[in-house]
Design brief:
The protein has about 120 residues and is mainly α. The chain has 7 helices and no strands. Helix 2 runs antiparallel to helix 7.
């Protein structure tokens, strides 16, 4: 039983690490250029990994954008486009823009909340 638990834990860790690597467009480009996306067994493995979208597994992900990439990798056209370094660069740039926008928006929301709390504290006195 301990061997099974250790094996399951190791498999979980390996699959978690691999799924999160899919968030990196340069890694996807690397896989595409080496022909992994032409291998039917590898494509089937990507399909199998869709279980990571389930909440009980997704909660362990540090880079949730990997799930979006995993979803896109189900499409042959997307897999073929990843051979092009410009495609990977475009995805990388879009991710950076998203993070910048998200960070700014979150900071504004936090500032507004802090100001509201400060006004509430002032009006209570």
């Amino acid at each position: 039983m301990d061997t099974d638990d250790t094996g399951n834990r190791l498999r979980f860790q390996l699959e978690l690490e691999f799924v999160q690597c899919l968030a990196n467009p340069n890694y996807l480009n690397f896989l595409a250029q080496r022909g992994y996306f032409k291998d039917k067994a590898f494509v089937n493995y990507l399909k199998y990994l869709l279980y990571w979208k389930e909440p009980e597994y997704a909660k362990y992900l540090k880079y949730p954008q990997c799930l979006h990439m995993l979803e896109l990798l189900q499409y042959e056209h997307f897999r073929k486009e990843l051979v092009n370094a410009q495609c990977a660069k475009f995805i990388d740039e879009q991710q950076i823009l998203h993070w910048q926008h998200y960070s700014r928006k979150r900071m504004r929301l936090q500032q507004a909340l802090a100001e509201q709390q400060q006004q509430n504290n002032t009006s209570v006195k």
